[in-house]
Amino acid sequence: MTTADPTTTPQNEALFLLGPGGPFVVRPTPMPTPGAGELVVRVRAIAVNPVDAITGPLRRLVSPWVRFPTVLGSDVAGEVVAVGPDVTDLRVGDRVTAFAAGQEKARNRASEGGFQRYVTVLERVTTRLPADVAFDRAAVLPLALATAAAGLYETDQLGLPVPTVGAARADEVVLVWGASTSVGMNAVQLARASSYTVVATAGRANHDLVRSLGAETVVDYRDADVDRQVVAALGGRRLVGTVAIGKGSLGHALRIARSTPGTKRIASAYPDPVTSVRSRIERLRGVHVTAIWGGTPVVSPVGPAVFRDFLPAALADGRFRPAPEPTVVGHGLEALPTALQTLRNGVSATKVVVGMDA
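and the corresponding structure tokens:
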């Protein structure tokens, strides 16, 4: 194991969630020691996600395997301070953003939750940052990126090829419904990086933003004839799949898939009981509907293909940009409950971020 300056003894602390309904408590916790393929990151910025803001019985429903007290948080950015065995690409001192996988069933460890000063992460879902990407901007990426990548690339989802240089698929289209969400912005950029044309939906105020990320056409999802507009934008081209994000998106995606040539595959990022029921019904009609789990790339080949093989160079040369823009609401672990309430109150085309001490 390689670590930072051994003459200093850093102190770790975390924001613990004591039970499914709370409360949150900041308290000391041991400094993590990285195992094989793991890194320890000193956290400089943390983004919060809707899954972090869940409370009460719904938390047990979403992640019944989690042991309490636990440490939430998936999105971190900071500096590598220790590397474990079998780490090949990253070194102590590297600036990174990473998917903190403590809430994933395969990991399920408080030491891997992002809401702490020093966190263990997996190299396979960690990205080295260019010097010009600030930590608060980088922290918006991990979970939204992983969710978009899961929907686009996992073999049981849309199953598309990961980004490659020189591919030409201009006559094939990916539909991103809900493109101004965090997941949607990443899905638009990844689909373009895989050389697909992107047709998207978003509120009218965010159309220019979504186009700037690579969408060819953006339709207002609130228009009464939105489905007809999307089909017209496809122009008879092959629809290779839809990433459907947000409440009500699945019904629109189904109607569009039935009306267009293509694979009839829909990856839904709004998992609810209706999705599983409709997926069974739609299979009989030749439409393949699946629910996306954003943590799947933690254990699948998609994780390193996107976080390690694609993203560092794409961030460095500007092919991919961190999106959405961060809204920093405070500093320190004590600010995280306020950040979660800000998220519950509702945000648009931004991600709520908490900074940590410099």
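(Above: one complete record from the training split.) The two ends are 25 Å apart (CA to CA).
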